[in-house]
Design brief:
This protein has about 160 residues and is mainly alpha-helical. Helix content is about 70%, strand content about 0%. The protein has a domain of about 100 residues. The two termini are about 25 Å apart.
Length: about 160
């Protein structure tokens, strides 16, 4: 049985992760003004004008739209209360999130990694992040299918 201290620490860590995800999501959404239409003079798109419309724009827009969506879906999927009350929706949204991350977020991130502005090392890092993200989603989906929670213990909801 976990101690009171470890329970509070776990709650604090979950709260910090929640706040971080919300902050990142809000930051991305608020920056859309510089992306529609693209402004190549400052921010993330600075210096990308020469190749932006040569296919990069597809990966970029796919990434900035699907990323926040997937993050918010992930927060909902981690809610124990939502999972217990709405098991069917939890499963359906889990499938949507897995498809979104695999088909949109990770693949667009991998495509964008070939254009990393700071060189090959950054490109390999971003490409590795895209592959690791896809792998973690696949492992999470497998764990859900095996009815295991994130702590490795059997889940209380019926299968995915």
């Amino acid at each position: 049985m976990p101690s009171d201290h470890s329970k509070r620490l776990g709650l604090a860590l979950r709260l910090l992760v929640f706040l971080l995800i919300v902050k990142v999501t809000i930051g991305v959404v608020l920056s859309f003004g510089g992306y529609l239409p693209p402004q190549f003079e400052s921010g993330f798109l600075n210096g990308r004008g020469s190749y932006f419309w040569s296919g990069y724009h597809l990966a970029f827009y796919c990434h900035i739209v699907s990323g926040p969506w997937s993050l918010l879906l992930g927060l909902l999927q981690l809610s124990e209360r939502f999972r217990r009350r709405h098991t069917g929706w939890h499963r359906k949204l889990g499938r949507v999130q897995v498809a979104s991350v695999l088909l949109l977020v990770s693949s667009s991130g991998l495509a964008m990694s070939f254009y990393a502005e700071t060189g090959a090392v950054a490109g390999v890092g971003f490409g590795s992040l895209a592959v690791a993200t896809a792998l973690c989603v696949l492992l999470g989906w497998r764990s859900a299918g095996d009815r295991r929670s994130i702590d490795g213990l059997p889940s209380t909801a019926s299968g995915c």
